[in-house]
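Hi, here's the filled form for the chain we discussed.

Project: internal
Contact: R.S.
Residues: 150
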Amino acid sequence: GRLLMTQAKKFFNWQKAGNPADPYVIKSPNLVQLFAYTRDRWQLKNLGIYNRRPIRNGTSWSTHAFGAAIDLGYPDRATLEWIILPWLIEYSHELGIQRIHDYHAKRYWQAGKGMVNKSPGEGGLWIHLETHPTAWGNSTPIVERILAGA
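And the returned structure, exactly as it came back:
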């Protein structure tokens, strides 16, 4: 098989989705798979997926309230910048990722827009990944998704 590698183009604004409702009341199976893969490959740490709360300093629901975001602690900036972020972006379609917040660098990547040099809000030495609703329930292991026909 060959490696599938596609940048995601679609973005869904979870903040405009109303109140979290079934099935979005648990952690996304997609993000559970993504965490397992990134933990095993780069020792990323899961700092939280599901948390029924509003966005920081706001009133609309956080993407975490839909189980649609994960915060991942990373080992060091160089590994994040040169290896992890490029990989997450290059495979964003297969991974079901629509947005990545890089708080430390005050920037974010968004499907269909690319890298935006604007602060995504308050955060520390972790990245925030959001999944698209079409991928939210995908429980296929990551390695099976990126190896077509393998």
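Let me know if anything looks off before we file it.
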